[in-house]
Amino acid sequence: MKNDPLYPTQDIIEAAHDRIKPYIHRTPILTSQTLDEISGAEIYFKCENFQKIGAFKARGGVNAVLSLASGEQERGIATHSSGNHAQAIAYAASVVGAKAYIVMPDNSPQVKVDAVRGYGAEVTFCKNTPEERQRIVDEVVARTGAVFVHPFNDYRVIAGQATATRELIEDSGVVFDTIMAPVGGGGLLSGTSLAAHYYSPLTKVIAGEPEGAADAVLSFKTGKIEKAPYVETIADGLLTYLGDKTLDIILRHVSDILTVSDNEIIAAMRLIWERMKIIVEPSCAVPLAALLKNKERFAGQKVGMILTGGNVDLGKLPF
């Protein structure tokens, strides 16, 4: 797949960053002495919970939509997503004046549904399985003629997500031992690993994944796309399995994938709320949970961590 002209080379990631810059925030990097003491590592948090739409996915969505030819934009843009990519495409479509058609699982957090509609997108609901999401979005595309932008298995999306790690490395001035991100479909993780490969080649990339959606760790071991043995986790943003493009990059550039339980995710999420005074959603806390579960592995390291988003339903906090 490396011979695909859209494959995210360093030049393509640079171009993506220039393209999206006017429409996204260059999010801050925060540290916490308390979390450093608790973890035994020196952690630099890239706060994408402060990003437009409240999540890193604004980067990939905006890059994908702005990369389309004007004729394609005019047809409208369609996607499926439980929330953050849905908001990203709705926001990106509003930037270029295009219509957005979003397929969302019927159990998506209401806060995310409201936000998608707030950007003027048309929402269609489906049962929350990858197969149903794709089936319904295919119907929407057939009906509307809209261009489909995959939530993660799209090089334009991956290049956009890679810009978060590019900024983390550039703005911190730190040579990281490890950079951590959560993994669902792998758009962020593959982008993170490519950015580390280009901008900080000695840095390892390690993912956190919920035990209740542990497909990526299986795919990582077998080298082919696997489904999770069971799906039940509070981390609603990480329920999907990898795509062929994301798996290909992950196999080449990611060092390991560590799994964590929902209790460990909730504990890490609570720590971030209490100690850093910032709002994060459960999926966002997965890498910190993985670090805390494996402290000895990261002891004394400089660790960069992508805090992916803060779109949490405040009426349904797990603590």
UniProtKB/TrEMBL annotation:
GO terms for molecular function: ATP binding; D-serine ammonia-lyase activity; L-serine ammonia-lyase activity; magnesium ion binding; pyridoxal phosphate binding; serine racemase activity; threonine racemase activity. It comes from Persicitalea jodogahamensis. Pfam families: PALP. Belongs to the serine/threonine dehydratase family. Keywords: Lyase, Pyridoxal phosphate. It comes from the Bacteria. This is Serine/threonine dehydratase. SUPFAM superfamilies: Tryptophan synthase beta subunit-like PLP-dependent enzymes (SSF53686). One of its GO terms (biological process) is D-serine biosynthetic process. The lineage of its organism: Bacteria, Pseudomonadati, Bacteroidota, Cytophagia, Cytophagales. CDD domains: Thr-dehyd. Signal peptide: none annotated. Residues 21-309 form the Tryptophan synthase beta chain-like PALP domain. Its cofactor is pyridoxal 5'-phosphate. InterPro entries: TrpB-like_PALP (IPR001926), TrpB-like_PALP_sf (IPR036052).
